Amino acid sequence: MTETTPRSPEEIAAEGLKPDEYQEIVSRLNRHPNRAELGMFGVMWSEHCCYKNSRPLLSQFPTTGDRVLVGPGENAGVVDLGNGLQLAFKIESHNHPSAVEPFQGAATGVGGILRDIFTMGARPIAILNSLRFGNLEDARTRRIFQGVVEGISHYGNCIGVPTVGGEVYFDPAYTGNPLVNAMALGLMETKEIVKAGASGIGNPVLYVGSTTGRDGMGGASFASAELTDASMDDRPAVQVGDPFLEKSLVEACLEAFKTGAVVAAQDMGAAGLTCSTAEMAEKGNVGIELDLDKIPAREQGMIPYEYLLSESQERMLFVGEKGREQELIDIFHRWGLHAVVAGAVIAEPIVRILFKGKIAANIPARALSDDTPIYKRELLQEAPEYAQKAWQWSVESLPACDYKGLFVGENYLSWNDILLKLLDTPTIASKQWVYRQYDHQVQNNTILLPGGADAAVIRVRPIDAKPEDCQTGVAATTDCNPRYVYLNPYEGAKYAVAEAARNLSCVGAEPLAVTDNLNFGSPEKPIGYWQLANACRGVADACREMNTPVTGGNVSLYNETLDSDGKPQPIYPTPVIGMVGLIPDITKICGQSWKTEGDIIYLLGSPKSPIPNTQSPIPNPPKSPIAASEYLALIHNTVAGKPPEIDFVLEKAVQEVCRTGIRNGWINAAHDCAEGGLAVALAESCIGNGFGANINLEINTEQRLDEVLFGESGNRIIVSVNPEQQADWEAYLTEKLSDRWSKLGFVTPQSSSLKIATNENLGLINVKISNIKRTWQDSIEKRLQVS
Question: With a threshold of 0.85, does the pTM exceed it?
Fold first, then answer.
């Protein structure tokens, strides 16, 4: 085919392409592209699909390990759990669609990540999410928040996969651009892991699933640009999902895979038919010819551009064995789904699209899928001004405090009041309003329910096995403190990895591997790229330290909105870490809530400042643990300081001690110290079962009391231990942690109080558990009731 008409600057810009990228396309094709081809390049050369700004940074991630069976490059990562069990898992974003249409944006985000799982031949067993919203006092934020939660619950509940955990943050930085990251886990059900690379010249290419419409047009390009007032009205870029149809698709695909007649499979997510044909062809070093006249359409008069860029949901592309086409078609028809032979594998490594007997597109597969633009941007040699200014913060700037509380003018803000204020802030408060809408017990394999532990725990049960015969479990979590990453991308990203692993260790799981979702602003701006580059380096270094290789993930850039002055405002850099861990015996786990009156409470890890990392880009780390803390932001309205640095030697030792303590039956409850520090962690452990605690803190006279109570130093876990185990437990602690642990106090009866005093018997906090629980539980719901 020959195309001699140049595309206009407006057409080029509409596809998200730059003028020099268009010239590169012309050079690759040795002609001008037609409109359909221009659209194909637009979506495939978007950041969402080709990672043109982030791919060089992602190359530093560790991706191999003893348990890694499939790493980056396929639809999902796969790890070996032992005993013939294999786990597929992945995280992806649906941020911009959720900003425009919260319900469908979030729902189709869940549908998309589930397809990544069962495309590998795995049955989905669990969903998690990582969500970020603006201030709940804002009416638009409340609408987005409610719509997103409703969308997640609708899709997950209808398809019958439990939503078992995750995290929800609220901060004004996300007011115009919420983050909706969905993670899914699946248990491999096929003998062989299903890959995406096409093979076998002459093998048929089958289109299966739902019909193709005009919804989701250009969604990949839409996801790779800043949000503006115009994009808020871009409803066609948001897909519409059908979870009941996807349930049929799950069963049909798994049945088809088990026949052995499927050579390769690819779901149609971002960029739809364009992405699935190009990626399958490129990965197999072959070509694919596809006839659009064979594609089941739900709308009349569709043109090649619309077929190729539609992101209609619940669709898949298969390469089947020649001669077994009807066998596969019959399976999908039994499940009430479309299935047609729409093309074939060809030897020439091109994507050739036919329409009405003519060639509608003819592009080398590598030009679309692998040999795409790569931008190696210049990295700032020193931290930007905002960070350097924030690092100048000193704890000496805060009002004085004593055992009564914090001086506010001539009065005190008591430690009781400050604790309750922290428990009332939506980021820390109970998320029960969210997870009560999710069916977290469907499939009957959820061991620890949402809100009761630092990580979700799922029984790993093959579909034909009885629950009582299955003792292996898997734990999963998502984690990231975006304020830390904003203030120091390198240390904040390292902290996110360490805390995700700590969450798993707190339920007794051995951390195995990571899937990451990198949510950032524009990489074309020096600050944005500085944040992205340093955060990627932090994730890479921390994953090597924790021996948790990265098996895949998602990059979501250009998360920015225009403020009232028309100036782009980026989100906080948010590299969400999804991590999975292995539990050999699901009878040897624990949650975060105190279980027995009289149990002794310990702090694992040191209350001292972590050892400075000499490789850190920040000179002379400060000693104050309330730098970058929730306490500093909420009580003092200050986002400043240097976030805590992780001492990985101590971190790994603390986590090993916690896991061993749980598996030996010494530890009855474990909870990491995160947002809000020690006092909030203790309060959260009191809430679940209503037990109180008497705590006596050894106070260094040089320490401020707010640093002790609300500082967020890393490497710390609080645990409760049966007094009968005290001798063995403390001997083990001394052997493994030397002096980096302390005995805090003991668990008191239900319906009592949380009491925290100093070693000089000066009472700091004394709050009834009923008051703590009410404040913590009512926070989000009362804000949603505002008209």
Answer: yes
